[in-house]
Amino acid sequence: MEKDKGQKTEIVVCPRGISRLWKKPWTISFWKGSHTYRIDGEPTISVTRVTGQTIDKSDWLGPWNGKMAIEHLQSFKKKDLIRAIKKNPEKLYADAKGAADRARDEASSFGKDVHTFIHKCIEHGMIGQSHKPGVRKTAETFFEKIKQFDIEVIVSEYIVGSLQHMFTGTLDLLVRMAGKLILIDIKTGKSIGPEAFLQTAGGYTKAWEEMTGQKIDEAWVCHVRRPPMHRVDRYVMPRVEILRAQNQFVRAVRSVRWVRRTRNKISEWRAA
Fold first, then answer.
1. Which of 7, 158, 240, 266 has its CA 20 to 30 A from that of 62?
2. Among 135, 167, 163, 132, which Cα is nearest to 36's?
3. What pLDDT score was predicted for residue 168?
4. Of 91 and 125, more confident
5. Residues contacting residue 257 through CB under 8 Å, at least 6 positions apart
């Protein structure tokens, strides 16, 4: 289990919605340094980890890893590639193999910076140039899209969790528009898959409704394209799809927990 570290944030949940069944307040704790959550001191499963462990990405992840490795090798001039092969082929192989991980880490870091920038803009208004090229422009692209709608921001970058199912996460944005409560998730990767919709419409809406008793009417996934594209693709999931996603997400949580329990018991079940 990863050790809790870094700045600690706590959310006290009063008995509302489904949480009223527990009669007394409960607490969600989050440590920024280790990105770990707990509910009343007990470890939880994060929304992103649930989808990461239950949605199969092998059909595209393998080819993408290979594509990144090839692009790394193609970045060399021919004579430099021949020299690298002769000098240290093991290092060249390791660097090519790790190209996908480096690209994934860079994309994750960029996405976190964009989310932080957008949150600060919502809280304090537009702020100075971000330290990373493209972060401010990506945020501005998102705001250009959102200002088309007459929305009222309820919360942004807000910690949520389910005591009933012991999962936690941080939603990006919750707004009200024309009487509807809408949960918005912002994605900045090159593409988005089913996990984005299961996280947004399934996990985050389920947690918010349990905590507050407030029904989410729509879930939006906003795919903000990085420069030079400057475009936002908005995907809207209505209430009926939210209910389906919530049911699927709860099943996914149970599946992850079953795998964990089984993994811990395999040694006990082994016959002599």
1. 266
2. 167
3. 97
4. 91
5. 45
CA 157 to chain centre: 11
Distance CA 200, CA 47 (A): 9
The string of pLDDT tens digits covering residues 191-219 is 888 999 999 999 999 999 999 999 999 99
Total count of residues recorded for the chain:
272
Token pair recorded at residue 53:
């462990």
- State pLDDT tens for residues 97-136: 888 888 888 888 888 999 999 998 988 877 677 777 789 8
Q: Cα torsion at 228, 183, 159, 222 (round to 10°)?
A: -10
Distance in angstroms (rounded) separating the CA atoms of residues 174 and 151: 10
Contacting residues for 242 by C-beta, under 8 A, at least 6 apart: 201, 202, 205, 216, 218, 219
Domain extents in the chain: 8-269
Question: Can you tell me whether residue 46 is helix, strand or coil?
Answer: strand
Shortest CA distance to 131 belongs to which of 117, 142, 120, 144? 117
Is residue 168 within 8 Å of residue 160, measured between CB atoms? yes
Token pair for 95? 């660097």
Residue from 196, 190, 206 nearest 242 by CA:
206
CA 256 to centroid of chain Cα atoms: 17
Each residue of 133-156: pLDDT tens digit?
Answer: 789 889 989 999 998 999 999 999
* Beta carbons within 8 Å of 123's beta carbon, 6+ residues apart: 156
Which token pair is 217? 């009417």
Q: Please give the order of strands across the beta sheet that includes 42-43.
A: 8-13, 26-31, 36-39, 42-43
What is the pTM assigned to this prediction?
0.85
